[in-house]
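I hope you will forgive my troubling you with a question about protein structure. The matter concerns a single protein, recorded as an amino acid sequence and a row of backbone structure tokens. Please examine both parts with care and let me know of anything in them that strikes you as inconsistent. Thank you for your consideration; the sequence and its tokens are set out here:
***
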Amino acid sequence: MRVTRMSRTHKGAAVGLSLAALAAGATAGAGPAVAQPKAAPAAAADCSAAYRIEQKLSTGTTWRMCWRYEAKSGLVLEKVTYQPPGETKPIRVLTSAKLAQIHVPYDDGKNEYNDITDYNFGSGLVNLAPAECPGGTIKTVKVPQAMDPQHPDVKGLCTTTRSRGHAYRMQAEGTKVYQAQGKDLLVYTVNQVGWYEYMTEWRFSDDGTVNMNVGATGSLSPFDYDAGDGRGWPIGKGATSYATSHSHNVFWRLDFGLDGSSANKIEQYDSVVSPPASGQQGPTNKTTRTPVTKELAGDAKNMRWWRVVSSIGKNKDGHARSYELVPGATTKYSGRGFTRHDVYFTEYNKCEMYASNNPLSCGTGHPKTVDKWVNGQTLKHPVAWVNVGFHHIARDEDQQPMPVHWQGFSIAPRDVTAMNPLTPSALKGENGRPDTGS
């Protein structure tokens, strides 16, 4: 149950193309491709120093971005660029990225919340202690519509670095081992909505990967308990207090702008495994590419994925730069139209900013949910909306406090650089088919 926040009463796709003609765009009979990057990468973030995040990781990669803060989505990252070793200029990855909704329906049908738009998620930013941002910096945020209007300045934005384990390992001939430990730039905030505290985490890896996660912690609501009719789980002694199960459907809104251009392309890839044909040792697997030219409500399936492709930038091998959407674990909620799909690609509209209960006026009769925005428009400036669900069936271990449960996804570079950006100098000449020595 949620009453007032201040009192914390509630703490037309084209036909598939064969994989052989995928990203390179080669023409049969053409000569070898020449490495000719088409456009200069975008410049570094051009915001003022107070709103700039810039971090060179120990492995040589630099991430740069601007940030701002709004009452609903909270932290918004803009003009995000990636500059790995060997690249002379930053490469624009994202024009903007933010949370677009946290939809929380309870299994008994009595309560349903849109935490971003109904409860001003951003205004619930909390102060972070130095121990919560080890080795990093905590920035002060002037919070719009702050829960405590007398104290709108909150020390609530952490930027720090963390190790992520092996970036790679390769056993060469003899005893030579090539290995490196990867590093991440971590940017995060904690926002309180009711009894929940949401940790919004953005991890920017030295290999160009971006991980987006939301972790829910805090407390179970003391008001949301049922009668033990199968819609909850007994918490505490015996079987008298049943915490009502519920879902957390989190949406992210990503406006890529690869290489500084909004005219990105969307492609869908599907693979089909067929039984072995006569004379073959094993099954065959054929992958096809389908250009997504119109708005799409997409569903993840086995061996299906999407990528966002730059229309102007190429790497040093002459291949178009792109980022692949890498879904995380999800539990799809079928109770609402806007939660029934895993990803939406819509044509940019400045008033379409939140996946549900969109409060901005787009004109009379304009729908309020992202699924209704998919109406056949041609994609010239695509925006990606990613939906990741978690069905929270409480357990004894959820009290007290509740351990963090995470949900999220990643975007991974695909042909952004010609080789592994962390390749050791001794292996930089090994680009293309390996020399077998025969």
